[in-house]
Design a protein that fits this description.
The protein is mostly beta strands. The chain folds into two domains: 83 residues, no CATH class; 115 residues, Immunoglobulin-like (Sandwich). It is 12% helix and 35% strand. The chain contains three helices and 13 strands. It has a four-stranded antiparallel sheet with strand order 6-12-9-10, with no helix packed on it. A four-stranded mixed sheet has the order 11-8-7-13, with no helix packed on it. β9 and β10 form a beta hairpin. The longest helix has 11 residues. The radius of gyration is 23 Å and the shape is elongated.
Length: 206
């Protein structure tokens, strides 16, 4: 009878939750290993991840080569998920520098009303031309392929339903150089919307 009681006690005891982690290269953010956190007790360059993501990587549904750790935010970024779901399928209005204080924008737009041009720049943090206040020791690797397209919708002020122009360019076009688009004619007040691949966008009108 005592044995049955012990067996029932074992059955009713909840299994301990397994915590998962990824170990990454502290210079590039490249993910090196994925597994239970307990297996990486001696590793310092690691972050915790959720069980579902860990198992997807372990089972090969997500390629480990598509994973990278943002060495600044210590977050796991996955190229395949961002591509499949467009990362952010909501249109976001790019804020004007006059109305927002933003440190280290990653995508910087400059509209020259006299020349009727828009200049697109990627921050130096990602290998672009727009200077950042951060001390850059290494160029951050983007998790997106260089051919990944970015669409910018020039619209009525605060109204993305009234479209004046759409500009499409690839990330690779902003590596090491700025992209200048000419012959842009817009009203005095307008907005620019995009689906975000990067986190920080800002625009300036000169």
């Amino acid at each position: 009878m005592e044995q049955i009681t012990d067996l029932q006690s074992i059955i009713n005891t909840p299994m301990p939750l397994i915590e998962y982690a990824v170990v990454y290269n502290e210079d590039t953010g490249e993910v090196m290993r994925v597994g239970p956190n307990s297996a990486f007790a001696n590793d310092t360059n690691k972050i915790s991840i959720d069980e579902e993501t860990a198992l997807q990587i372990i089972e090969g549904n997500i390629r480990i080569s598509a994973c990278v750790v943002n060495i600044y935010t210590k977050e796991l970024e996955i190229a395949e998920i961002k591509t499949a779901y467009k990362m952010d399928d909501v249109l976001h209005r790019i804020p004007d520098v006059r109305w927002i204080a933003m440190e280290d924008p990653e995508i910087y737009l400059t509209y020259d009303s006299n020349k009727k041009t828009i200049t697109f720049e990627l921050s130096t943090e990602f290998g672009g031309t727009r200077n950042t206040n951060k001390k850059i020791t290494i160029i951050r690797k983007t998790v997106w392929d260089g051919d990944t397209a970015m669409n910018f919708l020039i619209t009525e002020y605060n109204d993305p339903n009234i479209l004046y122009e759409m500009i499409t360019l690839n990330i690779s076009e902003l590596k090491g150089k700025a992209k200048i688009v000419k012959d842009i004619t817009v009203p005095t007040k307008f907005s620019i919307y995009t689906r975000r691949l990067f986190k920080k966008y800002v625009m300036e009108i000169v």
